[in-house]
Automatic annotation (TrEMBL):
<dbReference type="InterPro" id="IPR051452">
    <property type="entry name" value="Diverse_Oxidoreductases"/>
</dbReference>
<keyword id="KW-0001">2Fe-2S</keyword>
<dbReference type="InterPro" id="IPR001041">
    <property type="entry name" value="2Fe-2S_ferredoxin-type"/>
</dbReference>
<dbReference type="InterPro" id="IPR002888">
    <property type="entry name" value="2Fe-2S-bd"/>
</dbReference>
<dbReference type="InterPro" id="IPR012675">
    <property type="entry name" value="Beta-grasp_dom_sf"/>
</dbReference>
<dbReference type="InterPro" id="IPR036010">
    <property type="entry name" value="2Fe-2S_ferredoxin-like_sf"/>
</dbReference>
<dbReference type="Pfam" id="PF01799">
    <property type="entry name" value="Fer2_2"/>
</dbReference>
<keyword id="KW-0408">Iron</keyword>
<feature type="domain" description="2Fe-2S ferredoxin-type">
    <location>
        <begin position="6"/>
        <end position="82"/>
    </location>
</feature>
<dbReference type="Pfam" id="PF00111">
    <property type="entry name" value="Fer2"/>
</dbReference>
<keyword id="KW-0560">Oxidoreductase</keyword>
<keyword id="KW-0479">Metal-binding</keyword>
<dbReference type="InterPro" id="IPR036884">
    <property type="entry name" value="2Fe-2S-bd_dom_sf"/>
</dbReference>
<keyword id="KW-0411">Iron-sulfur</keyword>
<protein>
    <submittedName>
        <fullName>(2Fe-2S)-binding protein</fullName>
    </submittedName>
</protein>
Length: 174
């Protein structure tokens, strides 16, 4: 039997990645098995857990609900693209400082979903954060520390934005 494949080009975490993939390959498996980006987890086969959440063209997407071929030409960010130990993304800083995880299995997906939420709503209420968490399941934390982590991340993002604005204003005044 001849296996039909399709050539795809996807920008993943800022780098152009190209591959020949079967049309039925899920984006989650492309990231994990082809690109070896195993930070994207797979926790269910019912599209419910959210552990596989990544950003596709700036939108949080469950990567087990999308085919790799549908990501052809897109920009994908996985948890590996958020930040590094010496330069953490505010959401990572928030989880670190507010103890937003226990086993950590859900954490990559939760963080990517919350990056999507904070992009749309930089100052979410606790209720809005809990609403945003509806698509992601955590079996360990009881969610309270996750909520605190997201609130802290939102504060860090707002403070960084204010500092940037103040510096821009100071530059204009010179
Ligand atoms: S693996 Fe559970 S929603 Fe994708
Ligand atoms: S920290 Fe264990 S599932 Fe969320």
């Amino acid at each position: 039997m001849v296996t039909v494949t399709k050539h795809i080009s996807v920008t993943v975490n800022g780098a152009l990645r190209q591959a020949e993939v079967e049309p039925r390959l899920l984006l989650a498996h492309f990231l994990r098995d082809v690109l070896d980006l195993t930070g994207t987890h797979i926790g269910c086969d019912t599209s419910q857990c959210g552990a596989c959440t990544v950003m596709v063209n700036g939108e949080a997407v469950k990567s087990c609900t999308m085919l790799a071929v549908q990501a052809d030409g897109a920009a994908v960010t996985t948890v590996e693209g958020l930040g590094q130990m010496d330069a953490m993304h505010p959401i990572q800083q928030g989880f670190w400082e507010k103890h937003g995880l226990q086993c950590g299995f859900c954490t990559p997906g939760v963080m990517m979903a919350m990056v999507g939420l904070l992009k749309e709503n930089p100052d979410p209420s606790e209720e809005e954060i809990r609403d945003g968490l509806e698509g992601v399941i955590c079996r360990c934390t009881g969610y309270q520390f996750i909520v605190s982590a997201v609130q802290h991340a939102a504060k860090l993002i707002r403070e960084a934005e204010e500092t940037k604005q103040a510096m821009a204003n100071a530059g204009e005044g010179r």
